[in-house]
Design a protein that fits this description.
Elements: E1 13-20, E2 23-31, E3 48-49, E4 53-54, E5 59-64, E6 75-78, E7 81-82, E8 84-85, E9 90-94, E10 107-110, E11 116-120, E12 127-128, E13 139-143, E14 146-148, E15 152-158, E16 167-169, E17 172-173, E18 176-179, E19 183-187, E20 195-201, E21 212-223, H1 226-230, E22 235-242, E23 248-254, E24 260-262, E25 267-272, E26 280-286, E27 294-297, E28 322-332, H2 336-349, E29 352-360, E30 365-372, H3 378-386, E31 391-402, H4 415-418, H5 421-424, E32 434-439, E33 453-458, H6 468-478, E34 495-500, E35 502-504, E36 512-515, H7 516-527, E37 533-536, E38 538-539, H8 544-555, E39 559-563, E40 582-588, E41 606-609, E42 613-617, E43 621-625, H9 628-645, H10 650-660, H11 680-688
Amino acid sequence: MRIALYETKEFAQAHVTFRQQDKKVSEESVMVSRLPPVTTAASPNGLAQIPSVVTPGESIEIAILDPSHTPNDGHWTVAGVEAAQDGANGIRVTLPKDLAPGAPLSVSYVDAWGERLLDALSADDVVVHEPTQSDAEPRITACSQYGFRGDSLCVCGNFPEASRKGLMIDGRPAEVSSASQHVVNVRVTDAIALGAHSISGDASSGFRPTDIASTNVVALRASIDANALMRGQSTMLRLAIEAATQPMPIAIINRTPHIVSIQGGNYRQVDAPADVNNPLELRVDARSPGNFLIDTKTPGRPCPCMETADRLSTASQSTPVFVPARVLATIAAGTPAAAMTAAQAIAVANGLAVVDVTPLPLTNEALITFAILDGIGAIAKAAALAGLPNVTLSQPDFVYDTTQAPSSSPSLAYGSAMIGADAAHTIARGDGVRIAVIDAGIDTGHVRLKNRVVDYSDVTGTGWTPDAHGTLVAGVIAADAGDGEAPTGVAPGANIVAIKSCVADSPTLAAAHCWSSTLARGIDAASRKNVRVMNLSVGGPNDRLLAKMVAAATAHGITLVSAAGNDGPSGKPSYPAAMDHVLAVTAVDATGQLYPRATQGSFIALAAPGVDILSTGPGGRAQLFSGTSAATAFASGAVALLLQRSNLSPAELRNLLTSTAKHLGRPGPDPQFGAGLIDVCHAIVKASGQQTRCP
């Protein structure tokens, strides 16, 4: 038997009396030992290493990075399947055959006391790839360009289970930490020499002599006078990457801004020189004496194995992608206690466990997230819940993508001028108009955004993060004028309300995943912050919960702007863009040509710049991105300019923008460009009667 004692003072023993039906049956003195505080991690990072590409139905190996935080007496669950122990510090699991390509790879760990220490809706940097014809022959095709001492590097190819232990570094057996059919992660030990190394396969495991890849082992060097900072004195942080052949990015995160401050901001991404003898130096100022925490990370390049796993967005998958073993339901709102009681009653009667209960004042309901315990699929379970008298809606928790796509090369900062926003700034800058960016996190400390982000909150439960996609979108909408590379936003006087509803795939890539549950919570949260515009640069399948939230927000006079999607001419309509009341925006380049990857259809309302757009990136940087996400941000900024000079309803704004748009295709609405390119300058003149010189 284990006994947990909470909020106790320091003592070595406790006297415990056991009673049954008010009679004492036992009396014991027990030793008391302190356990580490229980915190729930929203990401496997630091706890587990998972191969970056997995396929449905295959058996994968996962390395447990910190066994002290996840002891062997608990259990791991991956994609709804309980994993088996595999050696001292590893687990093995066979993924479900019906796991949809593009689905999130959910990972959780529950200890023996029932504490959920890890609950990640989606493992970062993991792609569920389309199943391929399995090749029995082992192959090595590529590996990470760099490997850091004490870390691991990924090797790409084809790896039947029997061949995974046959990898070698410089002809000596490599230590495999995690593996799947297409990716094996091998350890880079502290003893390995810095510099170039070869990755090959043992012939006895079936590898060919030509299967050789090369990597470079490097080491991050960081130094700081910790004693000086703890005494309240300023000092220098010195960073360098030893054995690097070119400057490499380092992310610097100050976790204790109340104790110390870092030159240039509490979150920065800087390039460390390749020469370890010429380190990068940043001043760290002490605000007060005390303990501090500064993280230094090297984002580097993503594993090259992911580059071969390109896929359609969740909007165009043949089967809607949703979180396995999870179902959502809404019930009529009551008190929080009453909603929890109702949720528990539904769970007990239907083989479920309550994960979360969130009030949705926008629709006067409560949203319940259930975990499915009895093995019934999410679609069947949702159908069963729909028949309950107190359930107003039930469905799986569908997956959405931020609509990001690759860029080619930088172009001039053409976007604002192309839609007439630059000319319109003489009479409107969006002053005071509140725009909700319902997206991944935003770098609120960015010099071009810190005066524009007036409110921010996280509805994912993963904590606030300065992510690329959200920061890029916010910069297009409202970046302040500055000396940096990125141009001024479309509405530089607007106020950004940042609602983190998506979880980024990585700190530097402009890609993220969201869910029906988090988007619903995000729309509801934004509606209570007096926003007039909601920017939703996301896309996924048709969704009744999201449609209900969109309709309710529109009824409150909020204009919703969403991305058409990046799945090309044959892509399916992307939601929420294809929903009623939503302004769907597609992307064009500087010459007015349609972005080749833009989804087409009759739901498209307008076109806006969206190819090679330069905007604000995390860490004070300028970053390039392309896609209908960028075009949506231009449209949201244009709506803000109009709302500064008018009090139009969402329907009136739509009619004004479509009636003043510049035709790019044939006259009249068409499935490529909608009504045409936004012309916000002429729209403002028409709505307000104020005159300015429009292009």
